[in-house]
Amino acid sequence: MPLTLCIETSTKNCSVALSRDGEVLASKEQSDDQYIHSEKLHLFIREVLDAAGFKAADLDAVAVGKGPGSYTGLRIGISAAKGLCYTLQIPLLAIDGLSILAQDFIQRHHPAEGELILPMLDARRMEVYTALYDYRGNRQGEIEARILDESSFAELSSTAIHLIGDGATKAKTVLTDDRFQWHELPFPSAKTLARLVPAKLQNKEWEDVAYFEPFYLKDFVAGKPKKLL
Fold it and tell me: For the whole model, what pTM was predicted?
């Protein structure tokens, strides 16, 4: 049974888990508005390995959340994952954060047939990264960047549409119809990513370590530099 290190840094949540055959052996995560990934990620990796009694050399694979999300967070997490895979010559697996969120919701709430899941990750102002999932977690279209307003998702016919993710917090201010149900589930977690690993490994859905890049979805736009004091 492969030992897999799971890393998710696409949002404010710096999340690491060690798993075997989908079962989490140890985990560590912390969310902070200041984005602590550069400070905490490698520390968390050491801590989960130590907690489970393993070394990096024992790993059989690394799984990483590939985005979309924070440019800096994705760069840090994916660089760490690629570095481990290259050094240890082990497979790299990647799963998007929206699918991780949808799977987490399913495991917590067990939606009924016909209900829909709309994970949303914050993309500044009233824009979100989102995709539609059915009650089993099957994605029903492409991941997109979408600006939210009162008419968003009016074409959906389901009587229950579950909003999750940090982008869903602002969605509930404009999507006020009763069929939109908001849930407190803000960030993708490496612990849920771990549960999606076995199928990826079984199907040998590995990434090319040399060429793999984060899934940004949008081009990076640098913020205006702060005035020097």
Answer: 0.93
Ordered domains of the chain (ranges, CATH): 3-96+188-202 (3.30.420.40), 97-182 (3.30.420.40)
Structure tokens at 109: 């709430």
Residue 225, pLDDT score: 44
Q: Beta-carbon neighbour count of residue 54 at 10 Å?
A: 17
What pLDDT, in 10s, does the model give residues 65-80? 999 999 999 999 999 9
Q: Which two tokens stand for residue 159?
A: 């009587």
